Amino acid sequence: MAEASADAVVTIDVYKAKDLIHSGHRYIDVRTTEEFKKGHLDVENIVNIPYMFITPEGRSKNPQFLEQVSSAFSKDDSLVVGCQSGVRSTYATTDLQSAGFIHVSNMGGGYAAWIENGFGVKKPQEEMEQDEL
C-alpha cells in the first residue's frame, strides 16, 4: 500500500503516550493556538503545530502543516501526536505517515483524556505570570 490510511495509524492510550514522551518521544499538539494557550500537557519536548484553523467559514486545514512539522522534526524522529479528543490527531498522523514520517503515534482521547486521567497540565498564562515575578 503506497499511502497510509487511518487503518495504519497506531493509536495509543494516554498512559502509553506519557511513557513514550517521558522516554524521549516528541509531542506535537495539533490543536489551535487558542486551545493550546488555554492549557496543554506539562511535558518536555512539546510543540504546537495546528492541524486546523478556525476561520469565519468554519474549520479549515492548515495548508502549511506538513511543511511546519518537517521544519521542526526529521522523518525518523519518534513523535506522539495529540489534539483535544483524538480526531484531528488521527488525521494529522495519517498525513505525517503519508509524508514519510516513520515513528508516529496518535494519542487516543487527546488532551481531554490526559486531564481525565489526572496527568499534569500547564497553562501558558501561569508561565507568563511566573516570568514577570
TrEMBL record:
It holds the Pfam family Rhodanese. It comes from the Eukaryota. Gene3D superfamilies: Rhodanese-like domain (3.40.250.10). GO terms for molecular function: catalytic activity. CDD domains: RHOD. Residues 21-123 form the Rhodanese domain. SUPFAM superfamilies: Rhodanese/Cell cycle control phosphatase. This is Rhodanese domain-containing protein. It comes from Protea cynaroides. The lineage of its organism: Eukaryota, Viridiplantae, Streptophyta, Embryophyta, Tracheophyta.
